[in-house]
Amino acid sequence: MPKPVIFSIDDDSSVLNSIERDLRAKYGADYRILPINSGKTALEYLKKMEQRNETVALFLVDQRMPEMSGTEFLAEAMKNHPQAKRVLLTAYADTQAAIDSINEVRLDYYLMKPWHPPNERLYPILDDLLEDWKAHVRMPYEGIRVAGTLWSLSSHQVKDFLTRHQIPYQWLDIEKDSNAQKLVEGVSAETKLPVIFFPDGKTLIEPDLKELAEKVGLQTQAGLPFYDITIIGSGPAGLAAAVYAGSEGYKCLVIEKAAPGGQAGSSPKIENYLGFPSGISGDDLTRRAVSQAKRFGVEILSAQEAVQVAVKDSYRIVKLNDGTEISSHAVLIATGASFHMLKMPGADSLTGAGIYYGAAYTEAMNYKDCDVFVVGGANSAAQGAIYLSQFASKVTVLIRGHEPTASKYLVDAMQANKKIEMLTDTDLLEVKGNNTLEQITIKNTKTNETQTCDAAALFVFIGVRPQSQMVADLVMCSDKGYIFTGPDVMKDKKPPFDKLRTTPPGWTLERDPFLLETSTPGIFAAGDVRYGTNHRVASAVGEGAIAYALMKEYLKGL
Ligand SMILES: Cc1cc2nc3c(=O)[nH]c(=O)nc-3n(C[C@H](O)[C@H](O)[C@H](O)COP(=O)(O)OP(=O)(O)OC[C@H]3O[C@@H](n4cnc5c(N)ncnc54)[C@H](O)[C@@H]3O)c2cc1C
């Protein structure tokens, strides 16, 4: 396979030579370095490369060039190379142009001249971008293939699992591809789907997620008999706590029933998380956090659900759905929240067959040029709608209230998007379809008018409920199942401590619960599962970090 290309474009030959030398020294072994002295020549060259099916990994372009500026070049080049990373080389005077182009050409970075020493000012940035590019690029296919139908729930679950673990795969729709149909018939006489083909020639037929996780090399069993800290849930809260615990040398295990990243992992673009001015996708954030945690020695189990937490002397025991018991001194419940399911006839059987919960990422491209619907008016629904509009011909957003509750920047983006229509004061009444979703009926609650519309897919983002079932008998929770911590577990929410002795039972220590400690000593909660949290990535990360500090205090006192 030809090496992917790094373009460097600059009209100043001395700068071009210098950047070429630096690029070649570091990346020459893995990439073809292509120095070109004008944007127009580079565009012509790109056309030839497209005919040869060559891949561009990165454009490093000077902003100030005669004929065509760096930004103008990138705007053209990204049409056929949307996956390539885009970096502008700027002088101090061009900083504003670079900032403007963050949105205009979805710029990944702007580098100030001079970039010396490259070890400090060039390579770390390009390393990061190229790693990211490698994680997402689709090279000519040699990996895992998943064959199934769009309307099969188990096919959707497998695709979602692989996508959320950032394991590349090729989707083969056996209803549209007769070769794929033959491939499936070749291994299975039954109608079980999906069939997963692996590069080593092995296949799995309609596997459960644990079987799949093991086959793709994910950890599903704990490596040690005992941990200092066990964290249930690997969303932002769990991963933040894990990074801190691992970095300070604690033996830490994270248990995840699905895939790392939690709800944040399903966000196409998080734009309000500190430090990422052009936004970061949930899977990028997750990939970075998982590598960070693993680098510090944290073990992360995938496809393992914690079903119960129990207390035995100073040990906290987490029971998994396969019967395994994990023992540790402290446990953090960071299990977040899951979307409410639609409660109407037919909705269950069409789940995964046109109705999806928070899965815009995984399924969006299967609905290219189709009319799809989004239910919900908050941030997650708005992000889903914006992401879907890149593929669908029309996205209709059904909002029960008078107006969307999403953040202003998202509402503005929806309003500016010609493919998105927002229907406020609108209730979803009915979903219809045989094997797959075909139609929905909606009602305008102001006029009482009902309407039935053809719908290829319905992406549901309606409210969330906390996932606290595994500790429901052990710790105090609100009526809705959010876990009380710190002051909230105290009767009347305030000291004196002796009031606490009556409720909850089982509190034996001579101190108040720590801020994020539940009503059972040594069991902590952080993030969306906790009562009083504000359902944001940054809050979950912050709570995870604080929970770790408090668990450390707890461990010291044992
Ligand atoms: C589509 C979408 C877009 C969003 N966009 C933004 C945004 O732009 N900005 C922002 O600030 N916030 C955003 N949010 C909200 C943000 O993602 C959440 O507030 C945040 O993810 C909460 O983190 P958490 O770690 O508490 O829980 P979660 O992210 O919910 O993670 C909990 C994890 O625990 C796992 N788990 C649950 N039960 C068990 C069990 N029994 N055993 C093992 N594992 C279990 C789950 O599978 C999950 O992976 C968005 C949410 C969604 C859904």
- Helical fraction: 25-40%
Percent of residues in β-strands: 15-25%
Sequence stretches where pLDDT stays below 50 over 5 or more residues: 499-503
Distance linking N and C termini = 58 Å
Provide a count of the helices. Answer: 17
Oligomer: single chain
Structural class: alpha/beta
What would the average pLDDT be, to the nearest integer?
91
Rounded to an integer in angstroms, the radius of gyration calculated over CA atoms is: 26 Å
Global geometry = globular
List how many beta strands DSSP finds.
26
Bound molecules: flavin-adenine dinucleotide
Largest sheet entry? 7 strands, mixed
Describe the protein in words.
With 558 residues, this protein is α/β, with parallel strands linked by helices. The protein is 31% helix and 23% strand. The chain has 17 helices and 26 strands. Strands 10, 11, 12, 13, 14, 15 and 26 form a 7-stranded mixed beta sheet that branches. A 5-stranded parallel beta sheet has the order 2-1-3-4-5, sandwiched between helices. A hairpin with a 2-residue loop joins strand 13 (306-312) and strand 14 (315-320). Helix 10 packs across helix 17 and helix 14 packs parallel to helix 15 (408-416). It starts with a strand and ends with a helix. Mean pLDDT is 91; it is low at 499-503. The site of flavin-adenine dinucleotide has 39 residues, from helix 10, helix 11, helix 14 and helix 17.
Helices and strands in order:
Layout: E1 5-9, H1 13-27, E2 32-36, H2 39-51, E3 56-62, H3 70-80, E4 85-90, H4 95-104, E5 109-112, H5 118-121, H6 123-136, E6 144-148, H7 153-164, E7 169-173, H8 178-187, E8 195-197, E9 203-205, H9 209-215, E10 226-232, H10 236-247, E11 252-255, H11 262-265, H12 282-295, E12 299-301, E13 306-312, E14 315-320, E15 325-333, E16 337-339, E17 355-357, H13 360-363, E18 371-375, H14 379-388, E19 394-398, H15 408-416, E20 420-423, E21 426-432, E22 439-444, E23 450-454, E24 457-460, E25 464-466, H16 498-502, E26 523-525, H17 537-556
Bound molecules: flavin-adenine dinucleotide.
